[in-house]
Write a structure and sequence with these properties.
Blueprint: E1 3-7, H1 12-23, E2 27-32, E3 46-50, H2 56-63, E4 68-71, H3 84-103, E5 108-112, H4 140-158, E6 163-168, E7 170-172, H5 181-190, E8 196-197, E9 201-206, H6 207-220, E10 226-229, E11 232-235, H7 236-247, E12 254-255, H8 258-275, H9 283-288, H10 298-304, H11 311-324
Parallel strand pairs: 1-2, 1-4, 2-3, 4-5, 5-6, 6-10, 7-9, 8-12
Antiparallel strand pairs: 9-11
Length: 328
């Protein structure tokens, strides 16, 4: 029975990667910083290891005897009082994990990056894995940190580590308990806290397809290659319309001009610097919304066989999960 080590197993994508591995007959060890896990993560087939990405000795013990490493863990915050924490976790943490993987001779590594680390086309047409990009194109600390972490993964691949990179787009589905910034859109909509919307667009994907994509990347991916794990390009308005159909709550009628939202975000962030409480409207998120983040996922579909499940099902399952767990 193959053995996998997963970082970030208590996260949204990571928890689904665990379930996907278990369904495929893998034994799993996973790293988490959480001392108390939500009840739905109490999976008897999983050995939980408590620690950080920077503890080399702990990582060495955890990876010993493993056939594969799935490095899913990431600091996914659009605001931090101390942005250096985001780089420490995403860049230094990735470097440490991949260094240990090299030392213990892990068979293959699947590194979870983000479409946020990829380039975008100026005309709004879908970008792909080879769209030109530099660090100057990165909006905010989260994107910059993921861009730099992806460069680390590519460096280790050049130096001989068998690394495949996956770039999930915007995952939707059950189990987003924190929630992520995307999950927060759903929760706010369900609770009537979204009186208007901005004109932007994203590539949405069922989180269960993202998890399956990780296993497919392990099985079929080419070393050093990147694969976008996504599905449907939709405007935020189209996404909210689909949410409305599921929830029975009207879609907001008004579109707010970005300059107004930016002003609100600046005020929120100024208050957050004093309180330490994350802003209700993070400036980094507003700046991201200036660009339509549409992507071409044909490479992952063609080479990996990435599933393209209907996004309507993922939205419906996410809504029902939030209702069942008391989020609204």
């Amino acid at each position: 029975m193959p053995l996998a080590f997963v970082t970030g197993g208590s996260g949204f994508i990571g928890s689904h990667v665990l379930r996907c591995l278990i369904r495929r007959g893998w034994k799993v060890r996973t790293l988490t910083r959480r001392k108390r896990l939500p009840c739905f993560l109490h999976l008897p087939e999983v050995s939980w290891i408590y620690g950080t990405l920077h503890n080399s000795d702990l990582l060495r013990q955890a990876m010993k005897g493993c056939d594969a490493l799935f490095h899913v863990a990431a600091d996914y915050r659009l605001w931090a009082r101390n942005p250096a924490e985001i780089y420490f976790n995403n860049v230094d943490g990735t470097r440490c994990v991949l260094k240990v993987a090299t030392e213990v001779k892990i068979g293959r590594v699947v590194y979870t990056s983000s479409v946020g680390a990829l380039g975008l086309n100026d005309d709004g047409t879908p970008a792909n894995e080879t769209t030109p990009v530099t660090i100057h194109d990165m909006v905010g600390h989260y994107k910059r940190s993921k861009y730099l972490a992806e460069r680390e993964a590519e460096r280790f691949a050049r130096e001989g580590l068998d690394v495949v990179i996956v770039n999930p787009s915007t995952p939707i589905g059950p189990g987003d308990y924190k929630p992520t910034p995307t999950g927060k859109i759903i929760v706010d909509f369900m609770n009537g806290r979204m009186p208007a919307y901005v004109n932007t667009g994203l590539n949405f994907v069922d989180v269960r397809d993202v998890a399956e994509g990780h296993l497919l990347a392990y099985e079929k991916g080419r070393t050093g290659e990147k694969y976008i794990l996504g599905c449907c390009n939709m405007s935020l308005k189209e996404f909210l319309d689909k949410l409305s159909e599921v929830c029975g709550i009207p879609t907001p009628k008004y579109r707010i001009p970005l300059p107004i939202v930016k002003t609100a975000a600046l005020i929120c962030e100024a208050m957050s610097r004093f309180t330490g409480i994350p802003p209700a409207v993070p400036l980094e998120g507003v700046r991201m919304s200036e660009h339509f983040m549409y992507f071409d996922v044909s490479k992952a579909v063609r080479e990996l066989g990435l599933p393209q499940s209907p996004i309507d099902v993922a939205i419906k399952d996410a809504v029902h999960w939030y209702i069942e767990h008391g989020y609204c």
